[in-house]
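Handout, section 3.2

Students often ask what a structure token actually looks like in practice. Rather than define it abstractly, here is a full record for DC-UbP/UBTD2 N-terminal domain-containing protein. The first block is the sequence as you would receive it.
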Amino acid sequence: MGCAGSSQAKADGGVKKIRKPKPWKHPQPITKSQLIQMREEFWDTSPHYGGRKEIWDALQAAAEAELSLAQAIVDSAGVIIQNADLTICYDERGAKYELPKYVLSEPTNLIRET
């Protein structure tokens, strides 16, 4: 249960809701398999950026889930959402977690493999 002084509460009293990232373009067109490889490399190395492994795991699960489930995951993990698209979050201890857009959505210039 949160309290009135909860750091997740916004000035209007509501919790910041997650939304999909705005459309974005990768510097060079990439394939789905390249995107998957980039995501795997990020998640494999993310605990080395600082913060707690369980928060990184929750952020990965949220990034790979539908919005309503993602919201439940970050809420239950105590993640404080700075940017509604999950690109910047904090844990309850104040550690910062930055997620690149490529782990949250596909670029507009994704090459469809046949």
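Discussion prompt for tutorial groups: The two ends are 48 Å apart (CA to CA). How would you have guessed this from the sequence alone?
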